[in-house]
Amino acid sequence: MFKKIGYSILTGLLPLSPVAAQELERMETDRPDQTECPYVVPKNWLQAEMGFNYEKNNATLNTYTYPTLLTKYGVSKKLELRIITTLLSEQEHRIAGPITNAGLEPVEIGFKTALLEEKGLIPKISLIAHIAIPALSSSKFKPDKFAPNFVFTMQHTISSSMAIGYNLGAAWDGFSDCARYIYRVSPGFNIGKRFYAYAEAFGFIQKNEASNHNIDAGVAYYVNDNLKFDFSAGKGLSASSAKYYAALGASFRFKL
């Protein structure tokens, strides 16, 4: 069994043969930007997207993610299953000394389903939905109840080297009954055959809470169609936003 899985990973990360390349396009990922992409993982392929983040929340609080991992599996041409796991460490600096809370955030289980293909003014549209499960988390990060979230993810192709992606959705944190309304917009650019870059504005709006607005940018390098590395950084624009963040990531896929 382990030999079979290892062989699948190895062959999946190798450059595709000319015949396979005609049948399968370059891997599309939901990172490094915050804007989720509308593309679904091909049927019977497993895709992993991981990132290591540092976030300066305010003058006294820093957050480290090591890592966050999005695992996807293609069930059909229009459906993928998804699991998100995040190991988190919060370090708060106080006069008496630093306080650290570390552990597993609630595991999120969900799916992405393709709804519409791009045609003229109609963008490519997919729906992504997850639910965070309190029992699958460390006690320090355990919410009071299940926390659902969803986004409609859309993309317009501008040219062979440029597209604009955008999301609209909502999320609940498991503590409050009030939803956070999500927006994200990100123009992306292919630079040659190997590089991809983007700029982005994103945030959320919640009733009776301060709005949260941010900007960021990043770059990714494709080693081949099935393996890429990325770097991104951003900053907050509102008082409730994190001051800034930086992230490194890697994504790969292979056929089972």
Characterization of this structure:
There is one protein chain. The protein contains 2 helices and 13 strands; from the N terminus they run H-H-E-E-E-E-E-E-E-E-E-E-E-E-E. The relative contact order is 0.20. Helix content is 7%, strand content 60%. The model is unreliable at 1-22 (pLDDT under 50). The chain is mainly β.
The count of strands amounts to 13
How much is the average pLDDT?
Answer: 91
- Give the low-confidence spans: 1-22
The count of helical stretches stands at: 2
Across the major sheet, the strand order is: 1-2-3-5-6-7-8-9-10-11-12-13
Q: What is the percentage of strand-forming residues? A: over 45%
Written as H for each helix and E for each strand, in order along the chain, the element string is HHEEEEEEEEEEEEE
* Rg from alpha-carbon coordinates: 19 Å
